Every structure is written in structure tokens, then in C-alpha cells.
Amino acid sequence: MSDPRLAELSRRLPALRLLATAAELEHYGRDWTRRWTPAPLAIALPAGAEEVQAIVRWANELRVAIVPSGGRTGLSGGAVAANGELVLSLQRMNRLLDFNAVDRTLTVQPGMVLQHVHDAAREHGLLYPVDFAARGSCSIGGNIATNAGGIRVIRYGNTREWIAGLKVVAGNGELLDLNRGLIKNSSGYDFRQLLIGSEGTLGIVVEATLKLTNPPPPSQVMLLALPDMDALMQVFALFRARLVLQAFEFFTDHALRHVLAHGAQRAIDGDYPYYVVCEFDAADERQQEAALSAFERALEQGWVSDGVIAQSEAQAAALWRLREGITESLAPRRPYKNDVSVRVSAVPAFLHEMQALLAREYPQAEVVWFGHIGDGNLHINVLRPDGLAEDAFIAQCEHVTTLLAATLQRHGGSISAEHGIGLVKRAYLESTRSAAEIALMRGVRQVFDPNGILNPGKLFAAD
Length: 463
Prior knowledge:
By secondary structure, this protein is an alpha+beta fold.
């Protein structure tokens, strides 16, 4: 390492793994966004909390910025290192540390992949219920940093509901042990919840204690074809009233075309503008009959045009692939993404206004949208038209996002539902948070990270 700062870091931590080849810098220096050229100083892969503390103290002394890094599956540029930062990858800190049968908790390191957490809980007959399509590559630390939601929020809530305790290295190098797995703790501010969703700007998670729950009862998966947008909320209201929903996800015909072209199998003949994948409790004959009754009612009302119920686990997985395969199928096109939310009661009015806005502002671009309709979260993907330069496309999309942010503000919504603010959305934070809130957020950051070394440039428009 020719850089004297890295030489000093190696002197202090001779066992620390440091990477610095061009390929490694590019690989670790970006997330799923591709708008910035990675340019990190180096990649540090600590093996434990003590090394993380030592790195943070070194960074404070030498004023080196740090970008915490997990699975790098984020979509907001939160893990991008484009300005000579040290990437602190938690990839090696990926072990299961403890299972407590009485407390029903797992304690894990932050680099543990979500799928491995699911598997570990299942080995003990329990469930860690936060789930989404990137489960095989995203890490628990990243999930905590963005308060990840996913496909089962309607049943289980977001990540923050399932964090019993955290150990965090703050920006000043102090190790904080937050909540310690307590169910009741009314002893002042809950810094655990403050750190969840903070995008690595306050501290670096080095250990997490996760709550577990009972596995859900047997379920069934249904795919519905809908004739129009208004039917989405009518079907949701009907099914929520009659069934115990585990998930209620929708996507458009544009999304279906892409995922079918990517290898998924068509499940309903014909073309329809909207589709819903619905999963619900079906432990007994009564619940199964209730599902059929709800489907028949939706048909009678003209809210559903067709549908199919999975008859096996393989069929259920095939139906879910139609929804979960969308992001992967669009990835080669490098779409411009928006991840927004409104209250569920505001969804109908917002959908109409949003659809009119997108149709008006993107007359030539294909817009693919889908989402977690049951919790008010919509994902918007804009595909760059052939012949339009990348810079011009980004400029157009940022203009439209400004209009979308204003629309969200009128409806009391958020410019980021579950992917964080990062670099991509920091210019639109004021549409979601008041000036007073942002000032307090900056103040909190100053307390936890007085020298501003943790993920600078993320979350706020200017540091």
C-alpha cells in the first residue's frame, strides 16, 4: 500500500485484510445503482468489532471518510464510494453468534446474508419474517441500515419491528450496546431505533439480536388478473376483510412482459393491465372456502377478470416468480428507479395522479411499476429509450422526480419507502421531512459522528 494513510492503518492492524486492485475497488465501491464511477481509497474487511473500532478511530485521526458496505443490493447509492473513501465491508463478519430458545432470538454479525438468517431460524422451528427478492445476497446490516421492508410488511411490519438489540460502533469509535434484547426498557432514548434506517451515517452495526416468531400457518398463493387500476384497492379491501393476508403484491402488464422474457412462465392466458399475487392463511377448509368466496365475489363485481390458485409449492413459487423476478429482469436496462409510499387510504387518489404525471412526462419511455399495495409502497422503473443519451435521460428523470416529490408531499407521502435516501434521493428529502426535522437530524448526526467521517454525502444534500 503506497498511500501513507493505508500504511498507518496496516501498522495498527497488521491482520486486517485490505484490498486495492482495480477490480476490487470497482466491485466493492458501488451498489445496484450504476450512475457513479467507483473510486474508493481501498477496501477494508474487518473480522470483528474491535477492528471496526480501530478503523473508525484511525479514520477520525486522519480525516478519512468511510462508506459502510454490506451486500450492496441498495438502489439509492447509499453504499457508493466515488470520492476516495475507505469502503468498510462487513462481508467477513457473517457468523451466527447465538440462538436463545427462551427469548426466541438470533444474534448475528451484520454481514450474515438474509437467506442464512431464514435458514438458521427455520432450523429451530421459528421464523425471521422480513423477506424480499434479494434475500440471497443482501445482508442483515444493510437491512437494518435502510429499515428494509419487502413483501410481507402487511403481515409482519418492517425490519425495525424485529430488532431486539444492536451493537454499534459510533462515528467517534465508541462501542454502543443498545437495548440488549429487552422487551421492556423505558430508560430514556431508544438509540437502537434511531440507528435503524440511518444509512450508516450515525454508526456501523457490528452485531444484531433479531426477534423470531412462530412459522405462519399453511398458506395458499393466488394470482389475479384485474381489468383496471381502480380494481386494485377494491380487491385489496375485499380480501383483507375476508382473509388473513400474508402478502398482497401487484404489477402491471409491462412488468409481466419483462419477467416472462426473462424466463418465467405465464400462468393466466390473455393480456390484462394489472395483476396481483396474493398469499393468505389456508390452514383449514374454512379459510380455503373463504378465499374461493372472495374470488367469486370479485368476479361478480367485475374487479377480477381471471385468476389461478397454486396447487403445489412449485406452482406457488412459479407465481411468486412473476412478482419477485421483475427487478432482476429489468436490471440489464439499468432503469431509473423511484421507491415511494403513501398511506394506504391515499393510494387510490395518488395512483391516479401519479399515472397521469408519468404518462405526461415520459411520452417515449417505458415505465414499469409494481409494488406492495397493502402497505402503500410503489416501485417505479423508467427505461431509457433507444437513442437518448444517458445524461439527458437522467436529467429528464430527475425533473420528473421533482414533480413526483411534490405530488407525494401533497398526499403526505415519502420519497423513499424502503431503500433509503443515499445519493439518489437526497435532493428530495425536503418533500418528506420538514426543515425543523432535517435540522434535528443534522444535529443528531453531529453528536454521533462529530468529524463527519461516516458515509458523507449520503442522506443530506450537502454535508
